[in-house]
Description:
GO molecular function: catalytic activity; magnesium ion binding
Cofactor: Mg(2+)
Bound molecules: glyoxylic acid, magnesium ion
Number of helices: 15
CATH topology of the largest domain: TIM Barrel
Pfam families: HpcH_HpaI
Domain HpcH/HpaI aldolase/citrate lyase: 30-194
CATH superfamily of the largest domain: Phosphoenolpyruvate-binding domains
Keywords: Magnesium, Metal-binding
Structural class: alpha/beta
Distance between the termini: 55 Å
Radius of gyration: 22 Å
Low-confidence stretches: none
Amino acid sequence: xxxxxxxxxxxxxxxxxxxxxxxxxxxxxxxxxxxxxxxxxxxxxxxxxxxxxxxxxxxxxxxxxxxxxxxxxxxxxxxxxxxxxxxxxxxxxxxxxxxxxxxxxxxxxxxxxxxxxxxxxxxxxxxxxxxxxxxxxxxxxxxxxxxxxxxxxxxxxxxxxxxxxxxxxxxxxxxxxxxxxxxxxxxxxxxxxxxxxxxxxxxxxxxxxxxxxxxxxxxxxxxxxxxxxxxxxxxxxxxxxxxxxxxxxxxxxxxxxxxxxxxxxxxxxxxxxxxxxxxxxxxxxxxxxxxxxxxxxxxxxxxxxxxxxxxxxxxxxxxxxxxxxxxxxxxxxxxxxxxxxxxxxxxxxxxxxxxx
Length: 356
Ligand code: GLV
Ligand code: MG
């Protein structure tokens, strides 16, 4: 057992003080790039400021032959680029892979002062976070890093889902969780073959008009269900409980921008703060979906104004508003303020809202 006192002590002599709070930095889109792909890498400097997070991916989707080139490419890009307001994250290889030790021992000394968050894939339990936590502290101490690098776990194994609360609480460095629907589906032996999103076979059907065979066989409305609802809901609760942030993950059907937007919006409404982007066109979708709409902010500000000192109840447009609906509106208003601080276009839209 680690006592409350020990929890915030550095895990290595000379390592920075672990954070007592994880700042709510806008991270609507975490845009993945392959640092071993010269064409993609060349575009990174111009993307600074256009997306909340740029993530150099070292894990899946990078061929084994390109692992070293990706690691070295990320070091080069990070050293040569001024990221300004954009966060730099990386996804390291999994903890049982032959590459992860070199990933960490190369990246931390070379670019540890520029890396905001390290995403750890296929996390199974608190022991995985403890390992990364101690190793990062040792490497930070050796490299003289003064701001602790945060850790983000991908939830993509059944054991990881079962251990979700202990993963979120395993280290003060824990920044958040992402859903890894592709690996999770495989690990759970789900019968899907996609990267995220829904499945037309996962549905409920309207009752038949009667139990006659003709009515049973007659066309009936069907409603597709969300395969990821359960897992995202668990992520949201575990993250909120620990003061860290939940994210949807990859949506592999790049062409289907409409279903992608739906999946992202479900995650946003349930409490996620952002998602992955696998293609530049998903950045715009994520920025739109994970920013409260002008209509929502207008309504939220009206409720805040009408509720005065925040207690009691008022009627607004025929609907009862009280302390609890005010709290929901404040979540939206605060998010809008955080986003307006880094997104001038959004700030203009929110500033132009008139509350009657
Ligand atoms: C992401 O890594 C996934 O497995 O979906
Ligand atoms: Mg995965």
